[in-house]
## 1
Amino acid sequence: MSYKHLFSRALSAAPDRLHFAAHSHHLWPDASYEGHMRAWEDAAALADHKWGKVMGPIWAEVQGHIARELSLPDPATISFSSNTHDFLLRIFSAIEKRPVRVLATDGEFHSFRRQMARWVEAGEAELVTAAPDALANEAEKGRYDLIFASQVLFNSGALMGDIRQLAALADPAGPWVVIDGYHGFMAVPTDLSAVADKIFYLAGGYKYAMAGEGVCFLHAPADFAPRPAATGWYAEFDDLALPPGSVGYAPDGRRFLGSTFDPSGLYRFNAVQQMLQAEGLTTEKISDHVAALQNQFLAAAPFPQFDLLNAPNGDRQARFLAFKGADAADMHDALNAENIVTDVRGDVLRIGFGLYQDSDDVEKLLSAIAAI
């Protein structure tokens, strides 16, 4: 089945392109354009008063969509920022002791890796890394203040084990468990209902939520990190009448807010969610569509010289296939020369599959690889 009609603007803007990087800059559906225009129209019509709408019904609708997707019991635990790095800074700032003892997988994304390396360099943190399958055992040794792990590793596409094992260790007094869900949110069906009171979960709209940049979110459990030291004035929206010198915080997820932001991503997110609901497209259904394309691709055995790092096993699966080999960069460049977009991380070629592709696109990709 084809869903290309939902992406007519993006596909017609570059009709000769094959975009197999849905795990990176996911193409935007037409609904996101309509949402973006609504943000502009509200800014024009409401001017200063737009914030009442943004922080009211628009905000609440996005929270509701995310809470439903993740089976979170309380949408109010969700806050927003332009990127997930902001949330890392604020969570870290709420830990009072120094250095902060941090445990992470050895495959975290560059924003975490770089920031943590600088904190270690500055004496703010001590970092231990472990392979994903050894993380829980290391965490159980009980000597960490912060445990950080990706739900789906960005490089290999491997999925981490049961989040509940890490969540069982979490405590308001430490350790705090943070799950980076950027490659999992709306790619892997995720139910956080059993751990919502224990873990932080952060992700965003840039990838599988198809809403573009600027609409990242954090679920923060109620009793954890009540007063982040890195904070903006939006975090005390309920307490603007406090006496001078007081630093108040919202009683819910908004305690992690910063300051003035671009709300257009929230509009795009809502518009895309409305489209998905109208089309009956759940994460499970989109995953089935993607799995069929992946299986079609793999059935042709296109890369005998590469090792597939995340072969499908009939269970949950990342939305991209990761091929490791010495020729990964060369293959990426050769495909790029044919206007076929993939991406490469060192010696790993990543090919992402999404809703805007169909079986004909896969056949074109296979033909191009054969010719190369």
## 2
Amino acid sequence: MNVIIQRLLRHQCGVVARRQVLAAGLLDRDVRRLVRRREWAIVHDGVYVDHTGPPTWLQLAWAGVLFAWPAALCHDSAVRAADGPGRRDRLDGDPIHVAVDRDRAFAAPSGIVPHRLADLDAKVQWNLGPPRVRVEQAVLDVAAESRSEFAAIAVLAKAVQSRRTTADRIQKALAGRTRIARREFLSGVLRDVAEGTCSVLEHGYLDLVERPHGLPRASRQLLGSSRGPVYRDVEYQPFRMLVELDGRLFHTGAEAHSRDLDRDLDAAVDGRESVRLGWGQVFDHPCWTAAHLGILLRQRGWEGQIVRCPACPDGGGLRSSRDSFPPLSA
């Protein structure tokens, strides 16, 4: 086997296309002989891997790109390649998402999901192996197509946490997109990530938890405490119950956690019950959250009743398997 093909196999993780082999000087009969001798195995028509065992995810990614060439990884496959294909939280059975030019006709074999993109050259990092759409664009595609807003939040948080990109860079990529689902929501979450605030979470609590389920109207204001003035996200004043909305999208260290515990302890000293909620409670299972808050409020003297919203159990479509109402008796 000549030097050029050996170099290709090293660069492409053991995967090579027939056109590359023929350009390097081999003949079709040479390729058939390598397959017959089980030195190579067919991954897709015209694409081979240099062993007969199961291909790795990275080899499947290379095979998808080479089969569709000129093409690049996109969507979740581009994100996975950027994160590192060996992550334990990834499943190897996922399809390979491949981007080709918008005007190109392309029939994808099993295991490859094609996406047609306008201005493909400008969106792809061709120097990477395998070539892939820029991570900001890929992250936006995955977030926009996520099954829920909470899943979209997790995609954005993970991308920033990995330090492969920043919230500002994703925000700039979003501004350049002419059409994308969840634009306003994604923009709001990205602003929160960049600024360290939780306004999206506060609005979500109001619109998904408090209002549609008939919880009493809460106040949001500065309160006195044993440590001085403290801003409380949500207070149900007549019932001396606080709801703290934790908008951090990933861990910020022991010091921040300690401050949160101090705030909860202050609330207990002042005779208030403090409940801490995050993105999952608000966006992933708001009905379940509202039901539990209703129980706590009733225990503290609220005489109202939880209202079932259209997404609640028996009300037209559950958001999560946890969206079942607990008994409303203490």
## 3
Amino acid sequence: MSSFYGTYRSSVDDRGRIIIVKRLREGNASEDRSRYWLARGFDGCLAVFPLDEWEHFIKEARSQPFRRRDPRLYQRETFSNAYPAKIDRLGRILIQKELLDEFGIGKEVKLLGVSDHIEIWDPATYDAYKKANEGKYEEVAEKLPISSPQGENPEKGSHSGPAG
């Protein structure tokens, strides 16, 4: 399972290549660590998936019934905007001009490691996203379900043995 963390700056060269910093490249646990998939992300970013995570992602997307409107729209937008990509020996990945234009990506980008994928953001778009969500981190965290070891009730705390 691939794992990506951290926020980094990078640049886009004249051919549309972006250097994926070494720390992010090292998070790729796929058998072929040079191959990725580019896809439409959420909130205005471009998502970069290593092969192992892309396979999980498409399996989940395909599990939705295409005969229903929302899954059909999601699948259409996801897969029609997905492209295979390969990191070259210098750590660069080529982004199609259509994707650069669609996501407003110019000469500078922010790269975010987001657990199972990397996000590529136009810095101004990312700053606007951060500003719009300022102060919501703890509020959102409180709403998420809590996972705990089997048998423990996370709302009441854990017990190490019988009460008494």
## 4
Amino acid sequence: MNKEESSDDLDNHSSEEIDESKKIEEDNISLSEYEKIKDDYLRLAADFDNYKKRSEKEKESIGTASMAYFVESLFPLVDNFEIALSQDEVNKEIETFSSLLTSLLESLQVEEVGSVGDDFDPNIHEAVEHSGEGDTQKVETVLRKGYLFQGNLIRPAMVKVKSE
């Protein structure tokens, strides 16, 4: 090995060391910059988590709303069966279909609201007639049944109210 080669090697090593030190300096960031990046990352992670939760709730509410819409489309059928059952002579098939429809509504968590003698509640009753003078209002007649779907009112009961 001659002196020229060793001098060249030293020059190469020193230039490599300088390049590495520059690279290390570029890779190092200040503490405040690190805290800002960390804060941005945590905010982004929280936003994404909130987005996932919100989209799950929206999916659930869309499913519930579509099911409620389907149940609402059954109400004319339910009303017609009730009219048919109120007749003097009722066919056995009509009773059977009515009971099947009732069991279907029960399996879908649909509950009837509004019956004679209940206290009048404007949240679940729609009063179409009022009679009497008094402080307490009671349901005198149910003209059309109301329904709750999973605890939410989807059709108010149409009633006549009597004050006592």
